[in-house]
Amino acid sequence: MTARTLEQIRNIGLVAHIDAGKTTTTERILYYTGRTRKMGSVDEGTTVTDWMEQERERGITIVSAAITAFWRNHQINLIDTPGHIDFTAEVQRALRVLDGAVVVFDALQGVEPQSETVWRQADRYRVPRVCFVNKMDRVGADFNHAVRTIRERLGANPAPVQLPLGAEAQFNGVVDLVTLRAGFWAEDSGEDPEWGAVPPEYEGVARSARTELVEQLADHDEEVMARYVDGQEPTAEALRTALRSATLANAVVPVLCGAALRNKAVQPLLDAVVDYLPSPADVGSVTGRDPESGVLVERLPSARESLTALVFKTVTDHYAGRLAYTRVYAGTLRSGDVVFNSRTARTERVGRLLRMYADHREDINEVCAGDIVALLGAKAVVTGDTLCAGEHPVTLESISFPEPVIRLTIAPRTTADEEHLVSALREMADDDPSFHTEVEEASGQVVLAGMGELHLEVLIDKLRREHGVDVRSGKPRVTYRETISKSVSRAEGRFVRQTGGHGQYGHVVLDLQPAPNAGVSFTAALKGGVIPQEFIPAVEAGVMEAAENGAIGGYRVTDMAITLVDGSYHEQDSSAAAFKVAAVMATQAGLAKGKAILLEPVVRLEALTPEENLGDVLSQLASRRAEVLRVEDRPGGIKAINAFVPLSSTFGYATDLRSATHGRGVFSQEFDHYTPVPAEVVRSYLR
Ligand code: GDP
Q1: 3-class DSSP state for residue 419?
Q2: For residue range 132-155, what is the model confidence (pLDDT) as tens digits?
Q3: Most exposed among 67, 127, 130, 597, judged by the fewest C-beta atoms under 10 Å?
Q4: Which residue's CA is the closest to the ligand 1 atom numbered 11?
């Protein structure tokens, strides 16, 4: 079975804060869509999506893949997204290729910091969403509170389309506000619900909630507005249409509720995916660039267009080999096709095309625009590559990854480990572009750089488990940066060589300005033709090269705006190479004069603690140089502390927090910005 039309496809992802119930909900979705024979359970470590042994142990999902399921004659491609914040790069990568998302919340917690991060990223990619308030069966579950946090903490426009029936352990169904009918799940057995009239005691609240929904949608839909003004109830059909278009326009977010673990109210969530989330046809054309000319190219989501596909994830599968998960945006891809990889400018033969289901995989002959497939046998592709038709090449915007902020050295334990280390790392790096490895010049040691402490731990674990390579690791260290603390005007670099015949001549004058949180930028602002246009790219290249090595510790320079203001050239002797050297010299001169300072990465950390341990947790944070931003109340006597903390002083925080809270505290963190290292810390560091 495959979807017949674009309109019948949904490419969606589930995103959530860790522990909100994403895995459980995914499993139930796979169960109800008829693809899993037996319901797995996270608690027993037998889940469908947590197929990596390592994931099972940790109870977290690390790898993005795609699984196909069917619901109401629609094909749903579920793109897996990781739950832990250290892997936001993976979430971003998934957001690039999915058309809509289901955001799962814990009914006790409402919006948690990680869901906030992912929400902002989804905003950036304008991904339409529906929300699922899960765990409605838990003591203290509060649907209205969750909706409020969606409005207040996320600044979204939540539109509840259901009301819960019964509370906590008695939660047993939902009122569908669109149809004004009630669905009951008598038991936890996973049966289909019984739909009937809204119980009398819920009629009043249900009617007023529906009116609120209608008012909310009247702003976005003329038909609903017209009926509303006339005092008529819009039909379920009209309301659904209005909800769909408002959701696609990112104007509202439908909110549903349920208890995935108890098998309650998962089917209506699937209905909502079909009813409210976009199909590839709604998303429309994709744009890329002609790799040769740089001209913008637009491709419609049609099987008849020329092939345009993005590899969004590669996974080395020990049974099948290397799988390249690919989203086809336009055209048709057939097994055996020869396609053009616009990054390598080489052709590649596509081997088998696999459709991945929860419990099996199926060889397919072709895959059309809008769909997702796993390619087998495309050896030279990496994440971010565009595959296209050789006659009509295109490069889609590649997937960008935040730079690693933490690193440690690793050393193989035995000679056998040493032999395999390099190839194992290469294979892992192919599949996970969010980490880097390099050999440290001074010591000759191998360095692993990644997104956080846990990310590195997982990588080392993976080396051992999947590649049989055992390593000893050093202490994690953060990656520092440098910047200038004052403006420098007219930093000069002059490269002149007179060696017999042809000489070398380049002369560059730069202004340097601090630019907080803006990276390094280069602008040419020359008066007249003091440097010919053809040499400007070489100047820029020299500036960027010099910015790789700062004046204090040779760290990369950031947050600095560089302007080319003056210079001179020589008719015969000037060359791009000479200007590049002059630009390096000028930048180095500027950095030396700019009172360089050391910057360190700072994370945004949220720690949850029982109220009685608040004092201890705060004083622990203070000793870790935290800047506390706010302390909020959470249900159940929990305090949420939000703080900026230098990444270097978060190492080992998990243990501290656990001991201060008798194991009840939890925290999450994500990279936020770079900030100057205090003088006393610099001194101890440089010593
Ligand atoms: P993930 O980290 O978001 O993937 O969350 P999991 O699906 O692994 O669930 C985290 C924990 O919450 C597990 O112990 C689940 O059994 C539990 N859980 C998930 N859904 C529900 C629910 O609807 N009700 C209750 N009471 N617990 C749930």
Answers
A1: helix
A2: 999 999 999 999 999 999 998 888
A3: 597
A4: 19
